[in-house]
Amino acid sequence: MQTVSSVLDSISDVGRDATRGGYSRGVFTSPELSLREWFSTEATARGLSVETDRNGILWAWWDATDSRDGALVTGSHLDSVPGGGAFDGPLGVASALVAVDLLRERGVRPNRSLAVTVFPEEEGSRFGVSCLGSRLLTGTLDPDRVRALTDADGTTFADAARAAGLDPTHLGRDEQAIRRIGDFVELHVEQGRGLIDLDAAVAIGSTMLGHGRWRLSITGQGNHAGTTLMADRADPMIAAAQVVLAARKIAAEQDGARATVGRLQPVPGGTNVIASRVDLWLDVRHEEDAVTASLIERIHGQAQKICAFEGCRATLTEESRSGTVHFDGALQRTLGLALGRSFPGTPTLPTGAGHDAGILGTVAPTAMLFVRNPTGISHSPEEFVERDDADAGATALADVLEDLL
Ligand code: HGY
Ligand code: MN
Ligand code: MN
Ligand code: MN
Predict the structure, then answer these.
(1) Which ligand is nearest to the CA of 227?
(2) Which residues line ligand 1 (CB under 6 A)?
């Protein structure tokens, strides 16, 4: 039987990013499309029947009963951040496939169907909106807005989805899919230091930090770097630099807050050109949704003041937002009991990262399992999971699925 590591080894060359390091597997780009192919092959080899739904979500079915309604669903995502690690997403998918092998080996006869799923654009790295697939499924995103989303090259989501074999006119809330999700359990690599500090291989998710993404466009006066005196400039890059520092200051003064500018794009982006515009993206998170709202408000207010002083203008656009999620209590207890057999004393752990399980929590009970990452680093090539911990995760997932089937 395959181990999680051997399943992951089979995709370890897909989407390697020679420039950034790590992996760049944007949704519906060729690396992610080949991972979708890989998933279908792996699932089919396990006797699962694979379907793609209207929103591009892959479902691999163990049809244990004559209905798929109220099924037990597990899975994660295969898209990555640019230069991301090997485990964020794929660990959950590979562990679900190995958990199916374990259930079969144990001779488990499910009382309901089981589906292993892959959600598209969880990272929102190509089209900007995180958990795009699960937001479409639950109807919390306007399909017209999604169709018009564009990537860095100006390709629309509609065109990318069509090229991937979807009919973009069918995007949107999927009542059948919602009926089919009886419970959803997602296994994921831990993206912080929690399991290092707890000295445990596996934890049950307790809460998921609320988070939002905003685009701030700062316009100034593009001009020549040599002929424009410093006093005569309205340089959006100078304003942007101050906004980045202001965001850091505002978040640092708010207990538990996180504010990140990981992406900043000057236009036109010439070495000898004073930018006419700078776009930057704010990722702001806090456990209390009202605090997240006030943080972005304060950062925006500061940005307006900075721009007024620098002779620039700032426009803020919200790209996506999700409230803090408290995972389903009953499901958490079931996970605790299931893990009690082989993983006594499994801790619970809050996550600062967002996941599809958070979005799906609006339509079904959801829970998460986290697997130790000994570097405590994620969204980076340094993200890691030891082989034994990866297999412990799959065993833990199989224990949980067995009790829920
Ligand atoms: O951004 C996040 O928190 C997740 O990794 N998509
Ligand atoms: Mn991620
Ligand atoms: Mn993830
Ligand atoms: Mn010139």
Answers:
(1) 4
(2) 122-123, 130, 353-354
ipTM of the shown complex = 0.92
**In order of start, what are the domains of the chain with their CATH numbers?**
4-209+324-404 (3.40.630.10), 211-322 (3.30.70.360)
What is the atom index within ligand 1 of the atom nearest the CA of 378? Answer: 5
Nearest-CA residue for ligand 1 atom 4 is: 354
Distance 206 CA to ligand 1 centre (A): 16
**pLDDT tens digits for 364-397?**
999 999 999 999 999 999 999 999 999 999 999 9
Q: State pTM to two decimals.
A: 0.96
What is the atom index within ligand 1 of the atom nearest the CA of 123?
A: 6
Residue among 133, 147, 49 nearest 89 (CA) = 133
Residue whose CA is at the smallest distance from ligand 1 atom 3: 353
The minimum-distance atom of ligand 1 relative to the CA of 130 is 6
